[in-house]
Amino acid sequence: MSVRPRFVATLSSRRVMYMRRLVYVRRWPLIAVTLGLALTIGVSALPAQGTHRSAAVSASPPTNRIGPSPSVTQTQIPVPTPMPTKANATLAPAASDDFAPIGSVLLSVPAQSQLPDLPNGCEVTSLSMLLTAGGTPVDKDVLAREQATDPTPPVFSGPPGDFYSISRWGNPNTAFVGNVEGYGYGIYHAPLAKLLNSKTHGHALDLTGRPFSEILARLRLGTPIVLWTTSTFQPPTRWVTWTTPEGPVRATPLEHAVLLVGYTRDKLVVNNPLTGRQEQVSPAPFIAAWQQMGKQALTLTR
Q1: Where does the chain show beta strands of DSSP type E?
Q2: Which end of the chain, N or C, is surrounded by fewer C-beta atoms within 10 Å?
């Protein structure tokens, strides 16, 4: 009977015992090495001192612009709501003389004619229409008699009667200049506002100098406005300047006043005392003429 298998089994058991002793003797160095590797890996995974968590997240490799990779968990950082500042605050539209209609307006005010009695009475005729709209009708002839007048006769430097040859005359800023039924010029907003106040117990509202956008806003409230423009509704190209006791006056023979009663998307609607009709006019040249006439405007507070 052979003894080799038993010898092999004995040798194998001795080798196993030897290996167990070797592992047992050297277990502490192995444990130390394992702990050292674990600590090294853990410390390297922590963010550097002074680095915010968000910086550590952003340091990770970039993903595509469509969205984050499904295998990467990203921390959601809330975005604060910006406080309103002068830079991002919404500003109200600035007032201007541009024609910027909001909807359309048409007030029911009967048109009046200044002719034939008052060839120079466009202002008092427009004022009579305004008073009628305000519920206090006053005849234009009554207003013509009661308006302030300047009796200063015109002085001509050229042919008598030539408007562009006038060198000295009255001041429309204080009273009606000339004769409302004959050779005359007109009257401006300040003395006409006094006449309006006397008929309405102080309810005249002088909007002279205000932007045209404010004129339209007042119209939308339901009150028509007397405006100074020209009889052609175009800016004049020729002027004359004469002297008065209060100073020089720059004038045009086309000076005219109308009552603004409405507007459409692209037109202004006025009661024209020169024709006695309601007319639609182009805004741009009308506003340009109104500007040249000093942006004069007069209405009621109610």
Answers
A1: 105-106, 149-150, 155-156, 166-168, 176-177, 204-206, 225-230, 240-242, 249-251, 255-263, 268-272, 277-281, 297-300
A2: N
